[in-house]
């Protein structure tokens, strides 16, 4: 009979890929990444049905604002990264405020989108297939931005209640991962909507 | 659930109108539509491919089951199991699981592609083109000349010259349908907004049934048609005649029938070329008298069936887009007489 | 519900019992999260839907028994065949496979629960609500009526007004959430919760098959979620994804089959795992070709994503491309064949016990090979132009679905029934049921090949006389009654054995995997002692088997806690506390239901639902400590 294996000394928390939560979020990101890929594939597939894309009568979208808003969204990753880094080196303190900057930037991003699609484009979702797929992409992504903002607000609130000890760091890491995903997923969408049809249209 | 009395009601209505009652839906026995009784080169090639695969598949099935049985019986009389050695097992899996299947499948893929090449082979330029448009639950048929100009229009019936390839251009006006004549060729979908091409060729004169094979709603089941392959001269005559406007009524009854038609709601949907009825949302009736079947191959075209159809289309094809029309017995009789005279 | 009878009820056992037990009471029922509870719910609910699906099948067979039958009008028939397909594919096959996985996998891995127990419960409620909604629609006669793949434009608002197709889009999107949740959870559990020593190359083949199935779900379902959302938007917001005017109906077909083909392997692959388990146990020897079998399963998983166009050969796509899909479909026959021959090599000369589980596996061989071969036939473009959308295809997929998935599933049911219930199913009744089902199945579905070649299209509510189809159809309808009797006998067996079955030992079949190393049925905490393993066949290895192996100590029993190990080598890494019973998964499922179903009523309701979801999620994750701090 060999020696028993004592687990009582093992930590009761885990980080990164040792944590099931991390794998859970990777799974979620993979699922959503597949959704983004499907949307982009549908965009180009539908393009094949039209002589011009966007279809005749619709102007290609402006570039300036969306590019700006893309930069804003990318910038929003920085505070998330800094927070996570500080926390990893044992300093949970920025968690109570740094993410608020990210949230602010994400709100600016949303505001720009709302401005852009609230009247500065000349097609609706039910105008033609182009309108449908673009609106779906924008809607899908904006819903995610809203979701990640809400999620982050909860984290900040809990941090202010001093809930996060280093052992609970994984929740913060995972939220950060999701933030990166939401920001990063915008890039292929942005390229598709604003550049794709310029290059292949 | 459908009401059983509907049919009875319909029969009694027919009695009431004092019309001869024929047996409904009695199609000739040869009207089968088996893909394994080909009547043209394409269907024949596919049928051969099928038999090849069938024999191959039968052999594979027998061989695998034989191995399984032998293996299971191997240790029947011995007290101890008689396992295969590792090497024996490995060889079994590699040879019968990888090597032999790879060879068989290569043959399969190549022969499939070879038959496929014949199917997609380009058509002669001067081939006749028939444009078939799917509608919820009937077929509009237009004959086009080599320039793509309209020659003639009919519905639910296609006539082709024997021994000649015919190009079929497929469209749909509503949902997806699929055009299939098992004895002549495989099916091709009719997709709204697109045009698909296929072709058929019949080697023997005869009548070949076709049917819609993409689920298209309530009456997908009763969306059939007939392809008649006839000798070329006969075909030419027929085509010329189909291009003509409808024949004028010759008898008093027919003339009255025509008035009934033009005075009823029929004109809102149907066309009889040469009259004021020009609508195009339902089958063109210009030469309805020369057709073999009614309502997309659902029944024979005879006075009794035609009358019952006009009175109550919904009891034959529930959900069909043709509404019932109430007519007196006399009007109905004249109308039927007129329609059937339109050869 | 105690551990193995030999172990006395010590204090630790009581403690475990208290920590892991699910609270009693009707309302508490909605808070349960234990993997075995949830797994069993999936299984039972799945079989209930299966019975409903079978009833629908019999109704169809009554209608088709004679030409021009008036038993059902076309509206009803179309709803019935659509619901039959939807039930079997979405409400029965996938959830039952997931249910068995959820129940068995943690036991096979030697752990006490899954990594996200609450998510598990959430997935179940989503599934339950979706299924109930679907059948409510059927009873109100507003069920979807455009088949399980509902091609637009027929499924669009113009040609299918009314709520039927709205139910379809909603429920499909919904069901996918349930499956995705289960898949992610199974992946995380298989990666992190293997008992120490169970490195990847010692994982039971069944676990491998579930892992592959889960990965397939992760990549195959999102396109369908988006496609059904697009269809919903086309219908409800006048969008143009699939309209002929500006969108493209064929886009739906690509998206659907990009999901649909992997879907059939999602059903099939767990069945392969079950067959391996049963063959190992009944031959009482290690399987031949563990590695080839695992690689074959993985290969099927990969290649499965490259076949979807073989469902669209008649859509008029470029022909060269189509031939490519013939080749890829042929390729998938090889990993299937490799497994079959590995099993034959294992069975060869091994004097297996011919009990019902193995009988079902042998039945599988005949039925699945026929179905597989007809699959290869229809993978040929020219032949498929004839066979597509005829009863030939109906025959093909019932052979593979029933032979390839339902038969192994029933084998698995007989096999694991003692573990689930603590009693054996009756062998005599089981054998009788098997033979009747087997004969009935072949008599029902084999003639369909002929019918298809004779030109009978599928999805027709009736057919006219004189086409030569009458005899075959009548024969099929009569045979389907035989089949149904066989099915009733199995059902009867399940119910009777629940009370009357012989009491099962912990390991009645002398099997090799860890689920048999605990009592039948297992206690709420699965294992009293968690023992490390050092072989692929832990219950057989060494002289004393598992009893010789070291025990893992130091996992707390005063709270729900499991051991996490590394992915490849399965070295202990950490302990993971797990959440206990909670009503929030249920409320979240309700909120999600409001979000999706609300769309059918008004487009503003989803916004409300979105907020409700957020509230439910916050309630769910809200840590207890914060409340305590206040
Ligand atoms: C469990 C489910 C399951 C499984 C396992 C399969 C397995 C296969 N299927 Fe099937 N299929 C379905 C479920 C399944 N299918 C369903 C539900 C549909 C219809 C959907 C709908 O329209 O509603 C369908 C439809 C379908 C079509 C579309 C037909 C049409 O609509 O026109 C095609 C075409 O290629 C196809 C092919 C195949 C192939 C090549 C396999 C292969 O994987 C089979 C491989 C197995 C073997 C070949 C047998 C074992 C191997 C050997 C013994 C080795 C030796 C063999 C050779 C050398 C050949 N299937
Ligand atoms: C897993 C999937 C599954 C299963 C099991 C079945 C089972 C049956 N199906 Fe199938 N069927 C489909 C999936 C399935 N079907 C799909 C996807 C479609 C396409 C729908 C569409 O076109 O949209 C279809 C379509 C379809 C049609 C074509 C309809 C049409 O095109 O108009 C028909 C026609 O006869 C039919 C008949 C039957 C019959 C008679 C059974 C019977 O065999 C059922 C009887 C029972 C058994 C085979 C199993 C035996 C079970 C036991 C012995 C034990 C049970 C144990 C417990 C409950 C504990 N089905
Ligand atoms: Cu037209 Cu089916
Ligand atoms: Cu497939």
Beginning-to-end CA distance, first to last residue of chain C: 39 Å
Q: Give the low-confidence spans of chain C.
A: 1-7, 626-630
Q: Strand count, sense and closure of the main sheet of chain C?
A: 2 strands, antiparallel
- The helix/strand order of chain A is EHHHHHH
Shape of chain C: globular
> Which strand order spans the largest sheet of chain C, edge to edge or round the barrel?
1-2
Within CATH, the superfamily of chain A carries the name: Cytochrome c oxidase, subunit III, four-helix bundle
**Gap between N and C termini of chain A:** 72 Å
Helix content of chain A: 55-70%
CATH topology of chain C: Cytochrome C Oxidase, Chain A
Describe this structure in words.
The complex is a heterotrimer of chains A (about 200), B (about 350) and C (about 625). Chain A has about 200 residues and is mainly alpha-helical. Chain A is built from six helices and one strand; from the N terminus they run E-H-H-H-H-H-H. Chain A has a single domain, classed as Up-down Bundle (Four Helix Bundle (Hemerythrin (Met), subunit A)). In chain A, helix 2 runs antiparallel to helix 6, helix 3 runs antiparallel to helix 4 and helix 5 packs antiparallel against helix 6. The radius of gyration of chain A is 21 Å and the shape is elongated. The relative contact order of chain A is 0.18. Chain B has a five-stranded mixed β-sheet with strand order 3-2-1-5-8. A three-stranded mixed β-sheet of chain B has the order 4-10-9, with helices on one face. Chain B has a two-stranded antiparallel ribbon with strand order 6-7. The two termini of chain B are about 40 Å apart. The radius of gyration of chain C is 25 Å and the shape is globular. Chain C is mainly α. In chain C, strand 3 and strand 4 form a beta hairpin. In chain C, helix 3 packs antiparallel against helix 4 and helix 13 runs antiparallel to helix 14. A two-stranded antiparallel ribbon of chain C has the order 1-2. In chain C, strands 3-4 form a two-stranded antiparallel ribbon. Chains in contact: A-C, B-C. Chains B and C meet through helix 2, helix 3 and strand 7 of B and helix 3, helix 7, helix 9, helix 10 and helix 11 of C. The complex binds heme-A (HEA) (2 copies), dinuclear copper ion and copper (II) ion. The site of dinuclear copper ion has 8 residues of chain B, from loops.
């Amino acid at each position: 009979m060999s020696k028993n294996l004592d687990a009582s000394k093992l930590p009761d928390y885990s980080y990164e890929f040792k944590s099931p939560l991390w794998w859970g979020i990777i799974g979620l990101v993979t699922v959503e990444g597949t959704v983004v890929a499907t949307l982009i594939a549908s965009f180009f597939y539908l393009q094949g049905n039209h002589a011009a894309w966007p279809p005749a009568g619709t102007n290609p979208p402006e570039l300036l604002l969306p590019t700006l808003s893309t930069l804003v969204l990318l910038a929003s990753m920085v505070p998330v990264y800094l927070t996570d880094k500080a926390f990893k080196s044992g300093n949970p303190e920025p968690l109570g405020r740094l993410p608020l900057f990210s949230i602010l930037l994400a709100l600016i991003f949303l505001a720009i989108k709302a401005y852009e699609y609230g009247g500065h484009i000349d097609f609706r979702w039910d105008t033609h297939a182009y309108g449908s797929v673009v609106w779906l992409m924008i809607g899908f992504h904006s819903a995610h931005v809203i979701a990640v903002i809400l999620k982050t607000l909860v984290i900040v609130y809990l941090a202010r209640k001093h809930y996060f000890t280093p052992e609970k760091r994984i929740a913060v890491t995972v939220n950060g991962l999701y933030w990166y995903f939401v920001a990063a997923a915008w890039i292929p969408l942005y390229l598709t909507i604003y550049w794709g049809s310029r290059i292949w249209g | 659930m459908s009401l059983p009395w509907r049919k009875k009601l319909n029969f009694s209505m027919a009695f009431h109108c004092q019309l001869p009652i024929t047996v409904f839906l009695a199609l000739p026995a040869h009207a089968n539509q088996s893909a394994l009784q080909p009547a043209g080169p394409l269907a024949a090639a596919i049928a051969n491919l099928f038999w090849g695969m069938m024999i191959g598949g039968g052999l594979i099935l027998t061989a695998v089951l034989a191995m399984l049985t032998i293996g299971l019986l191997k240790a029947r009389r011995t007290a101890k199991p008689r396992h295969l050695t590792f090497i024996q097992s490995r060889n079994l899996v590699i040879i019968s699981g990888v090597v032999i299947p790879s060879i068989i499948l290569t043959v399969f893929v190549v022969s499939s592609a070879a038959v496929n090449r014949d199917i997609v082979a380009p058509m002669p330029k001067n081939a006749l083109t028939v444009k078939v448009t799917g509608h919820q639950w009937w077929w509009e048929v237009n004959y086009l000349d080599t320039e793509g100009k309209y020659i003639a229009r009919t519905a639910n019936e296609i006539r082709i010259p024997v021994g000649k390839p015919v190009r079929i251009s497929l469209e749909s006006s509503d949902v997806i349908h699929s055009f299939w004549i098992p004895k002549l060729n495989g099916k091709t979908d009719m997709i709204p907004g697109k045009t698909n091409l296929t072709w058929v060729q019949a080697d023997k004169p005869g009548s070949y049934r076709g049917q819609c094979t993409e689920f298209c709603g309530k009456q997908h089941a009763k969306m059939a048609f007939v392809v008649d392959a006839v000798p070329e001269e006969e075909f030419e005559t027929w085509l010329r005649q189909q291009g003509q406007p409808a024949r004028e009524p010759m008898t008093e009854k027919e003339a009255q029938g025509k008035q009934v038609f033009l005075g009823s709601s029929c004109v809102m949907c149907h066309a009889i070329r040469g009259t004021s009825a020009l609508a195009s949302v339902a089958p063109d009736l210009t030469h309805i008298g020369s057709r073999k079947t009614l309502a997309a191959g659902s029944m024979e075209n005879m006075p009794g069936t035609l009358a019952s159809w006009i009175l109550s289309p919904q009891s034959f094809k529930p959900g069909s887009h043709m509404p019932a029309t109430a007519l007196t017995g006399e009007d109905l009789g004249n109308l039927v007489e007129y329609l059937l005279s339109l050869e | 519900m105690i551990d193995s009878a030999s172990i006395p009820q010590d204090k630790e056992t009581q403690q475990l019992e208290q920590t892991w037990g699910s609270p009693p009471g009707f309302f508490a029922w909605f808070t349960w999260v234990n993997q075995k509870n949830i797994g069993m719910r999936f299984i039972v609910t799945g079989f209930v839907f299966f019975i409903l699906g079978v009833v629908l099948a019999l109704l169809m067979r009554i209608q088709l028994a004679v030409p021009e039958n008036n038993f059902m009008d076309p509206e009803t028939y179309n709803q019935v065949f659509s619901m039959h397909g939807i039930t079997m594919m979405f409400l029965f096959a996938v959830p039952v496979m997931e249910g068995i996985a959820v129940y068995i996998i943690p036991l096979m891995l030697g752990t006490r629960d899954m990594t996200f127990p609450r998510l598990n419960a959430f997935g179940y409620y989503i599934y339950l609500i979706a299924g109930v909604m679907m059948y409510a629609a059927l009873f109100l006669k507003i069920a979807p009526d455009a088949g399980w793949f509902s091609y637009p434009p027929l499924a669009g608002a113009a040609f299918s007004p009314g709520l039927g197709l709205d139910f379809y889009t909603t429920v499909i999107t919904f069901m996918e959430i349930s499956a995705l949740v289960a898949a992610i959870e199974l992946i995380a559990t298989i990666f992190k919760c293997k008992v120490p020593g169970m490195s990847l190359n010692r994982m039971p083949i069944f676990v491998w098959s579930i892992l592959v199935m889960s990965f397939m779900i992760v990549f195959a379902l999102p396109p369908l979620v988006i496609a059904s959302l697009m269809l919903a938007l086309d219908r409800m917001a006048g969008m143009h994804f699939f309209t002929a005017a500006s969108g493209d109906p064929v886009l739906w077909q690509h998206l659907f089959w990009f999901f649909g083909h992997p879907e059939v392997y999602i059903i099939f692959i767990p069945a392969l795992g079950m067959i391996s388990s049963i063959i190992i146990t009944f031959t009482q020897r290690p399987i031949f070709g563990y590695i080839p079998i695992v690689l074959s399963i993985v290969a099927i998983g990969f290649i499965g994503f490259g076949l979807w166009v073989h469902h669209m050969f008649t859509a008029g796509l470029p022909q060269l491309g189509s031939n490519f899909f013939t080749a890829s479909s042929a390729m998938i026959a090889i990993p299937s064949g490799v497994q079959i021959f590995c099993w034959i090599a294992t069975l060869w000369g091994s004097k297996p016990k011919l009990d019902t589980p193995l009988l079902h596996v042998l039945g599988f061989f005949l039925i699945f090979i026929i179905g597989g071969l007809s699959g290869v036939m229809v993978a040929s473009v020219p032949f498929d132009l004839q066979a597509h959308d005829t009863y030939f295809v109906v025959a093909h997929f019932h052979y593979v679905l029933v032979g390839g998935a339902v038969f192994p599933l029933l084998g698995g049911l007989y096999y694991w029934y003692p573990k689930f219930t603590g009693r054996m199913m009756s062998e005599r009744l089981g054998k009788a049921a098997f033979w009747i089902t087997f004969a009935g199945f072949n008599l029902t579905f084999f003639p369909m090949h002929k019918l298809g070649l004779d030109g009978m299209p599928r999805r027709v509510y009736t057919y006219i006389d004189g086409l030569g189809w009458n005899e075959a159809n009548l024969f099929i309808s009569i045979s389907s009654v035989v089949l149904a009797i066989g099915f009733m006998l199995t059902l009867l067996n399940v119910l009777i054995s629940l009370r009357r079955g012989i009491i099962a030992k912990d390991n009645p079949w002398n099997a090799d995997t860890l689920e048999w190393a605990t009592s039948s049925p297992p206690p709420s905490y699965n294992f009293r002692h968690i023992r490390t393993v050092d072989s692929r066949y832990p219950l057989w290895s060494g002289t004393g088997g598992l009893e010789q192996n070291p025990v893992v100590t130091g996992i707390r029993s005063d709270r729900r806690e499991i051991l996490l190990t590394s992915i490849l080598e399965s070295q202990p890494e950490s302990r993971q506390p797990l959440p206990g019973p909670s009503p929030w998964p249920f409320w979240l499922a309700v909120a999600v239901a409001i979000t999706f179903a609300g769309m059918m009523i008004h487009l503003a309701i989803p916004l409300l639902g979105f907020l409700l979801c957020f509230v439910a999620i916050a309630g769910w994750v809200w840590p207890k400590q914060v409340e305590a701090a206040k």
